Amino acid sequence: MIEHHAVLHTCQWLEKQGFEVTYLPVDEFGLVNPKDVEAAITNQTILISIMAANNEIGTIEPIPEIGRIAHEHKIIFHCDAVQAVGAIPVNVDSWNVDMLSLSGHKFHGPKGVGALYIRTGTKVDQFMHGGAQERGRRATTENVPGIVGMAAALEKAANNLEENGIRLTYLRDKLIHGILDTIPYTRLNGHALQRLPGNVNVSIQYIEGEALLLRLDLAGIAGSSGSACTSGSLDPSHVLLAIGLPHEVAHGSLRLSLTDTNTEEEVDEVLRVLPQIVENLRAMSPMYDDFINGKK
Ligand SMILES: *Cc1c(COP(=O)(O)O)cnc(C)c1O
Asked: pTM for this one?
C-alpha cells in the first residue's frame, strides 16, 4: 500500500487488464510483515513486488526475508530499490531478488536514466517494440552518455556508502531529535532505526505542510510535504494514510532529505529557523486555536 506510484499505478493498470493484485498493509512504522506476504500467496501468484525503502518515510523493508519466501514458493520477486541504491548496501543474491529497479538521479546521476536488473533465466516480455536492442527487451538506441553518467555516479556512491551512511545517520538523528525536542505536537513518521540514512519525515500538527514549505523556501530551505513526485497535488499522502495518520496530521508533514553534500551547519540552520516558522504559522491557525481553547 505504500509503494511508489511507479509500482502502484502499474498494478492498477494490470488490474484493468484482468490481473488480480493484492495490496499488503503496513504497520504504524511502514513495515511490511513477511508473514502477510506468505499468507497472500495463492497458486495463481506470479509476481511479488515490494520496495526496498520507502521514498517518503524512509522505512527499510525486510527484503531478505521476503525474498526468501518468494524463492521458496518459486515466485518472481521484483524490488523497487530506487531509494536504496546509493544509500544502503544492496545485494541481489542475499536479497533473493529476480528483478531490481534503480534510478540514476536518486544518487546524483543524470535524470532520465535507470536500470532494471534481471536475474539470468528470468523471462521478461519486450518492454518497447521497434528494435532488437538490449537483447530484444527494450527497443531504441541506447542513451550512452546517460548510461555512462549513471555508472560513474553509482561507482562514487558505492565507494562512499559506509562513510556517507554513518555521517548522514548522525545528521538525520540530530535533525529528528532537534525537531521533536524543540517543537511541541510533532511526531516522527516511519521507523526510528530501520530507516534510510538521509530521510527525515515529521508531522507537525496544527499547520498546513504547504504553508510550511513556502516559509522554508523563503529561508532557503528545500523540503517537501508528502512525495516530491506528487507535489502540486493537495491530496494527503497515501503513505501517511497507510501508516494510520488522520488526514489533518498527514497534511502537516514535512520531509527533509539529506545527502553527502549537506553539512552540519545546514542542519543547525534548519533547527534554528523551523521552530520560529512553526510558531508563526500556528499563531494564525484556526486548528491550533481550537486545540488550545479545547485544552483550556
Ligand atoms: C523516485 C522513485 C521512483 C521513480 O523513479 P523516477 O526515475 O524518478 O521516475 C520509483 N520508486 C521510488 C521508491 C522512488 O523513490
From this structure: 0.95
